[in-house]
Design brief:
mainly alpha, 72% helix, 2 domains, Tetracycline Repressor, domain 2, Arc Repressor Mutant, subunit A, DNA-binding, homodimer
Amino acid sequence: MPKSTAASHDQMYGVMADSQALSAAAVIVNRETDPRSCILNAAAHCFTNQGFAATSIDDVAHKLNATKGMIYHHFRSKNDLFFAVYRRGMEINFEAIKPFQSKKLPALIRLARIGYAHAVTMMAEQDFQRTVSQGVAMHQTGSTTAAQRETLDELIEVRDRYEAVFREAIRDMAREEKLEIDDLSISVKCFLAALNGTVFWYSPRHKNPQPEQHKIALNLITYALRGLGTELPAEALENLGEDE
Amino acid sequence: MPKSTAASHDQMYGVMADSQALSAAAVIVNRETDPRSCILNAAAHCFTNQGFAATSIDDVAHKLNATKGMIYHHFRSKNDLFFAVYRRGMEINFEAIKPFQSKKLPALIRLARIGYAHAVTMMAEQDFQRTVSQGVAMHQTGSTTAAQRETLDELIEVRDRYEAVFREAIRDMAREEKLEIDDLSISVKCFLAALNGTVFWYSPRHKNPQPEQHKIALNLITYALRGLGTELPAEALENLGEDE
DNA sequence: ATTGACAACATACTCGGTAGTATGTTCCCT
DNA sequence: AGGGAACATACTACCGAGTATGTTGTCAAT
């Protein structure tokens, strides 16, 4: 029961993490320990595992060894919870690429860095990214109520802004490298698709997943850049993931 | 009510297609007209729009202007229906690439052709492909009952066999072209990810979507091949989609 | 020290929806 | 006339979103 002193409040959520969550490949790490963030993490995990519709509020609560009352105290509805997870997911994405957006660098380096950062984030934050992916599918297939629609429109815009960062970097890169891109839109989509694919097949295999994720991300960004018709110089490739 | 003479049986399902389905971008074309196939088409559409969990058997029945009785006469359970849609989706995929699998051709041509065929199918059969995608996600996240698990394992194997066709073509191509592929597995995943991405963003915009799909598929296959470090000669590129 | 207000949940409840089963109906064929 | 296929309809049992009410701890004021 989360009815405890504030001193043990944070520890409780960590200790009480559902053993199923621990047995799943993606271990829940409580970076944030306030109740709201704990709910977001738990929800992201449940939405990932079962999808939005098949996830009940009770599922999320049980993952926290809590009850519905807790969830509804913080979020007005299941939809609001879903949207909050999506927002957090996109925040995570923007945070990941933010250090590398300086226009002072050559566009190819910028693109490689944000692409690498994106690829690593896709693997490191699968629950949030899969939830974003579900939100995108929801928007595209139109299976929303009118109320949902408005918020989803807004959330899609956030994602479009994220994508625009890549579009811009690809365009700049093409100009600097004097590359001809047949269709910028489709190229951006392909680029991101190659980097996003881990959502479908990647599962961490090690306690310390970072070296593996780094290696995979290198392969992904190499493929994605080659698809555009360019390559990163070897020494710049070696620096990816190290100068942050 | 489907209680009619056999003569009007097929026409009825076509005429009675839900107006919502017609207003959605993807128009249901009843290529097969037996009840079972009609149910599969309707189900694929519903699973795509709402996801498996949020789709009720009543939804599928209503899309056919029929009732649950009809669905349960043909399929034992909602799960069985879902699996049948998945199977059909994979059948469609195999059928699409089958004409191009001859090993007499150079591997690069073979790869380009099956890749192109795959890309076009992804766009032309979105409902089935999105359902397959849901099945894959279900399998990966482990959100299944024991009964589901067994069938899903089998279905994933079907998909792995499909992927193996691409793996083999890529490997053969790399050998013939004397290309060094860093990690064949990841390269296959990237290749298919680039071709599959339309599932997330493509919606037909024209009554006759084929020229547009052809153009997009050309862009996709060009990107995907370049990601591998190769390109298709221009005249071979022009022949894609024409010699079948 | 006591009291009251409020936050942060926990628990009980309501109502609508859905998977699947049971039963009914009609048509077709022998 | 009888049997079976192919549904349609009625029914059962359960589930889950959200609401209403209960409980406890904390804090501030007196």
